[in-house]
What we know:
There is one protein chain. It contains eleven helices and no strands. The protein is mainly alpha-helical. It is globular, with a radius of gyration of 21 Å. The protein starts with a helix and ends with a helix.
Amino acid sequence: MAWDTEQTRRQLLDAGAALFARHGFAGTTMDAIGRESGINKERVYSYFGSKSGFFAAVLDDQLTNLLDGLPVVGAGPEAVGDYALALFDRLEARPGLARLLAWESLELTEAVALDCRALSCHDLAAGLEAALPTSDLAQAEQLLLSIVTLVVGWWTLSRVADTILTGDTTPETRRATLRADAEALAAARRAPQQPSPASQAQPS
């Protein structure tokens, strides 16, 4: 029976995503990958070269398109709030993605698939700039980073939430708060209104 190369690769990547999200690179063993995938761990070396190569491949597979398909729609702070909720909902459906983002920063010295992901983020920042508009693209990039950090933190800093929050700690409450926070950040980054020529005229 012929070996299904693509199916084997997919099983390994899915198993790696589950284990690396839970335990990170250092905490995941090759034996565990073999057990989780149901495939001999030696296949990891034949497909990906090394454990570190496999980790990079998993991150590439899972994170490259993380922000795709979530455009900024509309205008004003409300559009930014809508975007923050769309990202929140995506990560609520797949919280392992947030954990992989955290492990990437903790265990690697540079981002995986940087060029592709940077291009996607540039497009989103441009969308934010157009929606507000902000004074420049650099502010829109900072806003995007703040939103991603706020959203991802709900799944990666849950023990911090335990120490701070004394009331409702449900995702629904956090979701509503996130929207308000994103809109407030957006409102603070609106481009300042230019003074009209009449207001600039000096009194005679």
